[in-house]
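note to self: dont lose this again. the chain is below, predicted strucutre after it. 190 aa total, dont forget to put it in the shared folder this time
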Amino acid sequence: MQIQITSTSITLTDSQKDYINEKIEHLSKYEDRISDEATIIKVDVEKRKVRSGDQRITTQITMYVPHAVIRAEVHGQNVDETVDLAIEKLKKQIETYKTKKHRRDKGGKLMPESTLEAATKSGVTEMDIEQIVKRKKLQDVEPLREDEAVEQMNLLGHDFYAFVNSDTNLFSVVYKRQDGDYGLIELENK
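---
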């Protein structure tokens, strides 16, 4: 595995970097493919200016493992605390990653059964797999401006809202970011 540690507005000590490396290397005991040489793990530690004194450090760990991306982002008061919390989140996500039965390769084809043997041996049943429990199909959707979509999202009390953008005529999703700002995702036609 390749571990890349970066920091913004904070200088990490050698002992902090060693601590991060040690914690991440420990994750390989949960899944063999994490220690694979193709796995890239990016750790971003950022010190932010916030009004209140707590949650000034943000640690984001992104793991590029075979056929998936696993990510955890945590806010806290110090680097060690945020690393520990992020590692705990990653452990849960690694368990989910191990038990996925319907993985696809980059081309969209289902992976061969041989790669799923570990999940079968660990006793995963159909009940363990997350399923979609509700579907919505929309017809005759009226295009909205971005500000109207944000307003609609806030009225519904949701963190995101899918709509057709009246300016671009593209399917779009507006979402609320953790910092309180808004983001926009657009599906670009080829």
